[in-house]
Amino acid sequence: xxxxxxxxxxxxxxxxxxxxxxxxxxxxxxxxxxxxxxxxxxxxxxxxxxxxxxxxxxxxxxxxxxxxxxxxxxxxxxxxxxxxxxxxxxxxxxxxxxxxxxxxxxxxxxxxxxxxxxxxxxxxxxxxxxxxxxxxxxxxxxxxxxxxxxxxxxxxxxxxxxxxxxxxxxxxxxxxxxxxxxxxxxxxxxxxxxxxxxxxxxxxxxxxxxxxxxxxxxxxxxxxxxxxxxxxxxxxxxxxxxxxxxxxxxxxxxxxxxxxxxxxxxxxxxxxxxxxxxxxxxxxxxxxxxxxxxxxxxxxxxxxxxxxxxxxxxxxxxxxxxxxxxxxxxxxxxxxxxxxxxxxxxxxxxxxxxxxxxxxxxxxxxxxxxxxxxxxxxxxxxxxxxxxxxxxxxxxxxxxxxxx
Length: 404
Hints:
Elements: H1 2-39, H2 42-58, H3 60-75, H4 82-98, H5 100-107, H6 111-136, H7 140-163, H8 167-179, H9 182-190, H10 203-230, H11 233-251, H12 254-265, H13 269-292, H14 294-302, H15 313-336, H16 343-359, H17 364-389
Helix pairs in contact: 1-7, 1-12, 3-6, 3-10, 3-12, 4-6, 6-7, 6-8, 6-9, 7-8, 7-9, 10-11, 10-15, 10-16, 10-17, 11-14, 11-15, 12-13, 12-15, 13-14, 13-15, 15-17, 16-17
C-alpha cells in the first residue's frame, strides 16, 4: 500500500505539473493578441493574427516530433534523436522562409516578419526532440519545466516587444532572439548526450506522428472554419463562442495522454484502458456540467450576449469529448507503429466539409450537429482501426532509414 500510495502521489504531482505547464502555454498564447490589440493599429493587429495562425500551423511538426521521439525513447531508452530533431526543424523553417516571397504579398506581411517567423519555427520545432525524450523517459516534472521553457521562449519575447511598443517587426525580432534560448536551455534540462548509440528514429515514424497531429488539428477546427465561411457574421461569432466549450472538453484531459504515452509505446494494454476510461469519464462530467450550467458556460466563454445559446452547450462539449478520446486512440496507434493512424480523421474532415457545404442548410444548428456527427464517426473509425491494428502490440520499425 505504501508503494502504491507513493506511486499515486508521484503520478498526481507529475500530472498536475504538466497540466499547469499546459495552462501556462495557453495563457501566454492568449496574451499575445490581447496585448497586441492595445498597442498596434488595425493593420498590424491583423498581420499579427495572421502570423500567429501561420506559427500555429508551422509548429505542428514539433508536436509530432515530440510524440514520435517519446514513443521511440520509451521503446529504446538508450536511443537519441538529435539528427532527426535538427533536420525536422530545419525543414520546417526552410519551408516558411521559402514561402516568404509568396506569402508576403498575398497576406500583406513584411518580408522581415516572415523570415523572423522562420527563425522562431526552427527553435519551436527543434524543442520537440528534447520534450519527447523527457516524455519517453517518464521524466514528467522535467517535461513540465521544458514545456514552460518552450512557452516562455515562444511567447515571452513577443509579449515584451509589444509591451515596449516595438511594433510588429520589432516585437517579432525580440521574440526571435529570445526563442534562440529555447534549444540550449532544453538541452541542459534534458541532459541527453549527443549520441547514445541506440537505434535511430526513422523518417516514417516522424512523418506518421506529424500527419496524425496535423489531422487532429484540422478535424477539430474544421467546423469553426466552415461556420466562418457559411454563416452570417453574427452567427459565425456565436459559433466561435460555442467552440470554446469544444476545445475545453478536448484539451482538459490531455494530460492523461501525455502521461500514458510511454506506457503505450511499451505495449501496455492496461495503460490504454485506463487512459481511455479517464478521458471518457472527464468528457462525461464536462457534458453533464454543460447541460446543468449551460448559461454559465456560455457566459464565461463569450459574455452575457450568448447565454441564450445555453441549450447547445452539451452538444459542443460532446464534440470535444469525442475528439479527446480520438486523441488517445490516435496516440496509441502511433505508439504501436500503425501506418495510417490519421486516416479516419481525414475521412471525417472530408465528410464534414461535404455535408455542411452541400447536404444540410447553412445554419448554426446544422453545422453544430454535423460537427458532432463527424466527431462520432471519427471516434468510431479510430476505435475500429485500433482494434484491427491491435494497438497494444508494438509494430516493427525495421526496414526504414534511420534519422537518429
